[in-house]
Amino acid sequence: MRNLKKPLKELMEGWLLFKMKDLSLHILDIAENSIKSGAKKVLIKLIESKDILTLVIEDDGKGMDEETMKKALSPFFSTKKTSKYGLGLPLLKQACEATGGNLHLESELGKGTKVTAIFYKNHIDMKPLGDISATLISLQSAQPDIEIEFDYEEK
Ligand SMILES: Nc1ncnc2c1ncn2[C@@H]1O[C@H](COP(=O)(O)OP(=O)(O)O)[C@@H](O)[C@H]1O
Ligand SMILES: [Mg+2]
Questions:
Q1: In 3D, which of 42, 10, 39, 18 has the Cα closest to residue 28?
Q2: What SS3 class is residue 96?
Q3: 116-136, pLDDT tens digit by residue?
Q4: Taking the complete model, does pTM exceed 0.90, yes or no?
């Protein structure tokens, strides 16, 4: 039998993208990266303007070196031992690029990480927000010692 690794990985990627039905699920996934990185504080911010919705998730965790940061956006890259799939960032990237937007990653070792996802919110492929409130509550309840901050700004 031919090697099925590539088609099965593609299937997994497509399936997980399909399952990420709304932004709240992406937020949960990206905030979990922050928590895994040892952050004490995670800021989740939505900035809305006429055409654009910007999602910022910023943490004060262990950060990434340059090499890790470069790889972090490619599918199936993970430094986690008890890993999921290494698809958290790539799926968010796909979700915003599907609307014509893009994703920026800033990170400094020992300082923290900032993920900025830009969505064109009126694009047909824009996902719904989902239940962000429930996401925040479940994140904060699961991690009472981490300060989860949420902010909304209209520009
Ligand atoms: N906030 C963060 N702080 C430090 N490293 C991160 C952060 N987010 C992502 N990374 C790095 O990028 C990798 C890929 O992240 P992701 O695509 O979400 O996959 P996974 O979480 O399954 O490993 C992580 O394994 C980690 O090395
Ligand atoms: Mg992840």
A1: 42
A2: helix
A3: 999 999 999 999 999 999 999
A4: yes
The answer to whether residues 95 and 117 touch, using CB atoms and an 8 Å cutoff, is yes
Residue with CA at minimum distance from ligand 1 atom 19: 86
Q: Which ligand is nearest to the CA of 77?
A: 1
Whether residue 61 has its Cβ less than 6 Å from ligand 1: yes
Q: What distance lies between CA 121 and its chain's CA centroid?
A: 17
Q: Which domains does the chain have, with CATH numbers?
A: 5-154 (3.30.565.10)
- Match 């303007």 to its residue by tokens: 49
Q: Which token pair is 64?
A: 């990434």
Distances, alpha carbon 102 to alpha carbons 2, 64, 123, 132, in Å:
36, 20, 13, 21
